[in-house]
Write a structure and sequence with these properties.
- This protein has 6 helices and 10 strands; from the N terminus they run αβββααββαβββαβαβ.
- By secondary structure, the protein is α+β, with helices and mostly antiparallel strands.
- It folds into 2 domains: about 80 residues, no CATH class; about 110 residues, Gcn5-related N-acetyltransferase (GNAT) (Aminopeptidase, 3-Layer(aba) Sandwich), CATH 3.40.630.
- Strand 6 and strand 7 form a beta hairpin.
- The model has no long low-confidence stretch (mean pLDDT about 95).
Amino acid sequence: MGAPHPLLPYFLAAADGRFPPVDGMVTVLPPLAGGLECSVAFTGHAVVATALSEQAVHAQAPDGFGGSLAPDFLRHVAGPKGWIDVVDVTLTARGTGGPPRLPDVGDADDHPRVRHARDVRTDVEVHGDERGLVTLAVGLAGRRELSIELRDVRDGGRGHGRSLIADVLSLVPAGEPVFAAVSPGNARSLRAFLARGFTPIGSEVLLRPERG
């Protein structure tokens, strides 16, 4: 295993309530593994992991007050034909450990949620039951992250999202930070994570550049 990506300490510190200075600045770090790059915004400070030079990044005048997630800046980083994922809220909580409360799922390779997880993450585990599907994986910068998808979203899933989140936390060792990236427009999902003790720490977007 290689050295952890230098972005990982930012996430782990944020999980402990320690954040970069609120100075409006942008820190430039090396690109992520697998051809991915990202822009992460904390309060008043941003971190961009990219193969571009610091000079090329700062020439676009991004800032730590939202400018690092502006569409024009992201398109510059990704290149004219690069892939830009959606901007998500970054949330974190702690694993609860104990007896695992979700079984493995072995027949979900074609599920869109699983395909996406395997495209941008490693060591993907798939769990779930009649309520829905959960992926648990090594994600952005090497952090542990999860995602969920309900099988039936009518009537808000009848609380299934909240119970799935609680159960997947049993698969993470007690006290270990785990992260989730949730679309801000997916209000039901965001409320479910907040109700289960997840704390917002920033926002993020993944990119797979194509610069010719």
